[in-house]
């Protein structure tokens, strides 16, 4: 049987969304760089005559004016690359003050590092001098109770000839990009809160919190999970009910500390699994570790849940009886350095663009942090967006180029969203301490943790290395986004991932019809006379469905309004 990767992607995502709803309790160098964009101080209620209209042709004398809302990693990658082009004029508008940029580490997967290496060798060199590699170390899952290795995953083999995954301080990464930009490109302290499009000519005007108007030819909304650009584009609230971002059902505690682990320098990433929660410890270099504790909690528990003796004691009690390392790490972390945040994500959406406005990063594909792919996918967005904008020669082409960017990214990013949610749901809702049968000294047989979840966790033990290999091959191999998805990886993800989900969730066989009987319209509300069941149910036939793929992609992000 031959099926297209898009069918695989949509079926898998649909299943993940269906299951998550059931689980949730309720989100360089000396090259020329152009100057920054002109800012107009016109009041926000000015009339259409205030739009700045330009001739369609883009040139050094009449550059493409790109406004980027948000100063995160994705936007800085875009700005850095576009500023090299003398036919571009770039302005980044960030809400927070420069001194309040996000702290903490960021994991850069091999796919993100491959993008960075391709886009700017000088930036890549600076990053590699600051990053701690984890791809060449032991990584995997341990039993939270027994501290035994449950399953290790290989981050090196799926890389091929691209760099190994690594971890570095987020502020260091931002500073590397910031230092490479011309002075004045990034402006802090005045966020974009909405925009308007000039329907009679060229141009977008971004309206900031201060009431200022910034005129440009296109606007990129890279303003995070609570995106004002997405809110304006889709006519929905910035946050809360109706915003598109919903509470995942999970909260995460995290902290950073100097820690002399017995496996320091040998193990990069350890995930301790157990009943209804899990704990992650990651070597971030220089003798320091960053840790995360994930668990299912009601939204707002960070405020509403009483912790009279502090967060550290609260977590020590929750992880009582778990591996000694976990309690030691929590105890050794200074109380003020322990944080908590609720996790939100959003379902995949086809609405990435509005005329000369496009979304990027968390604003359009917020995902769970389980695979550490949020920042990586924003960097992939940046790579594709830069390719498309650099190919623009006339302002008449901007809208179609932004739509092409969306078509290249929408399916792959949606599958990564689904996989990220899959990982969270399975680890918290499905895994337990693995069942074990052993003979004790007197010769009797002892059964340990032989409940349903324990037995399932044990049964999955030989399957997971296969799944991890497929998963990381998929993540690391498709970073150029030249096609929607790699068929082989996507199909294997569907089959192995689906088997894991079915086993862990105790789903009856009939419910596997979610894989076979759900058409494209089931996920994205598209009016297509296509049903995935016609492909999956007939195993003896070979289908050539390129026309179906074209129809789907163009329905998803059409060339014309």
Draw up the topology in text.
Blueprint: H1 5-23, E1 39-40, E2 64-69, H2 73-82, E3 88-94, E4 105-108, H3 110-119, H4 121-128, E5 132-133, E6 138-143, E7 149-152, E8 166-169, H5 170-180, E9 186-188, E10 192-197, E11 204-208, E12 213-216, E13 218-221, H6 228-234, E14 245-258, E15 267-274, E16 277-285, E17 288-296, H7 301-304, H8 311-318, H9 324-332, E18 339-346, E19 353-354, E20 357-359, H10 362-365, H11 374-390, H12 398-430, E21 436-439, E22 445-448, H13 452-460, H14 464-477, H15 487-505, H16 513-516, H17 521-524, H18 533-536, H19 546-556
Helix pairs in contact: 1-12, 1-15, 2-5, 2-11, 3-4, 3-11, 8-9, 11-12, 12-15, 14-15
Description:
The protein is α+β, with helices and mostly antiparallel strands. It is 37% helix and 21% strand. It is built from 19 helices and 22 strands. The strands form five sheets. Strands 7-6-15-16-17-14-18 form a seven-stranded mixed beta sheet, with helices on both faces. Strands 9-3-2-13-20-19 form a six-stranded mixed beta sheet, sandwiched between helices. It has a four-stranded antiparallel beta sheet with strand order 1-12-11-10. A hairpin with a 2-residue loop joins strand 16 and strand 17 (288-296). It is elongated. The two termini are 36 Å apart. The relative contact order is 0.16. Mean pLDDT is 82; it is low at 1-11, 13-50 and 507-552.
């Amino acid at each position: 049987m031959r099926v297209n990767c898009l069918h695989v992607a949509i079926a898998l995502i649909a299943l993940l969304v269906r299951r998550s709803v059931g689980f949730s309790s309720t989100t360089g160098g000396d090259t020329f760089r152009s100057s920054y964009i002109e800012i107009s101080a016109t009041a926000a209620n000015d009339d259409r005559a205030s739009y700045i209209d330009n001739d369609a042709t883009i040139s050094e004398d009449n550059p493409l004016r790109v406004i980027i809302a948000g100063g995160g990693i994705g936007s800085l990658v875009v700005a850095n690359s576009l500023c090299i082009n003398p036919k571009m004029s770039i302005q980044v508008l960030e809400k927070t003050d420069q001194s309040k940029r996000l702290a903490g580490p960021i994991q850069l997967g091999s796919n993100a590092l491959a993008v960075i290496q391709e886009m700017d060798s000088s930036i890549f060199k600076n990053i590699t001098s600051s990053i701690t590699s984890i791809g060449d170390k032991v990584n995997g899952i341990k039993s939270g109770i027994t501290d035994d290795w449950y399953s290790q995953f290989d981050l090196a083999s799926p890389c091929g000839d691209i760099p190994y995954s690594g971890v570095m301080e987020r502020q260091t990464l931002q500073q590397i990009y910031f230092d490479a930009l011309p002075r004045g490109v990034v402006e802090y302290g005045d966020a974009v809160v909405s925009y308007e499009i000039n329907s009679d000519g060229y141009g977008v005007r971004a309206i900031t919190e201060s009431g200022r108007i910034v005129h440009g030819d296109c606007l990129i909304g890279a303003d995070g999970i609570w995106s004002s650009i997405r809110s304006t584009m889709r006519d929905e609230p910035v946050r809360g009910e109706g915003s598109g971002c919903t509470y995942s059902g999970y909260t995460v505690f995290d902290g950073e500390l100097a820690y002399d682990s017995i496996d320091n320098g040998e193990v990069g990433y350890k995930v301790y699994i157990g009943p209804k929660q899990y704990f992650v410890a990651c070597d971030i270099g220089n003798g320091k570790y960053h840790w995360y504790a994930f668990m299912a909690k009601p939204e707002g528990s960070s405020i509403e849940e009483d912790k009279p003796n502090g967060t550290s004691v609260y977590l020590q009690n929750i992880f009582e009886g778990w591996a000694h390392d976990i309690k030691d790490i929590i105890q050794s972390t200074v109380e003020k350095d322990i944080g908590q945040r609720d996790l939100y994500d959003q379902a995949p959406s086809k609405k990435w663009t509005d005329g000369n406005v496009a979304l990027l990063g968390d604003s359009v594909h917020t995902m769970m942090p389980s695979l550490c792919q949020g920042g990586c996918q924003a960097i992939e967005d940046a790579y594709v967006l830069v390719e498309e904008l650099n190919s623009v020669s006339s302002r008449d082409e901007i809208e179609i180029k932004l739509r092409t960017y969306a078509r290249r990214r929408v399916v792959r990013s949606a599958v990564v969203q689904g996989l990220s949610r899959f990982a969270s749901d399975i680890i918290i809702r499905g895994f337990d301490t693995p069942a074990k049968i052993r003979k004790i000294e007197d010769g009797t047989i002892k059964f340990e943790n032989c409940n349903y979840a324990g037995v399932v966790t044990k049964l999955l033990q030989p399957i997971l290395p296969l799944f991890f290999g497929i998963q990381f091959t998929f993540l690391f191999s498709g970073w150029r986004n030249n096609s929607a998805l790699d068929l082989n990886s996507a199909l294997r993800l569907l089959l192995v991932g689906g088997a894991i989900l079915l086993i862990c969730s105790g789903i009856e066989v009939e419910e596997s019809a979610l894989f076979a009987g759900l058409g494209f319209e089931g996920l994205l509300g598209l009016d297509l006379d296509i049903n995935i069941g016609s492909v999956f149910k007939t195993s003896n036939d070979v289908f050539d469905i390129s026309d179906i793929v074209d129809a789907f992609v163009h329905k998803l992000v059409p060339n014309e309004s």
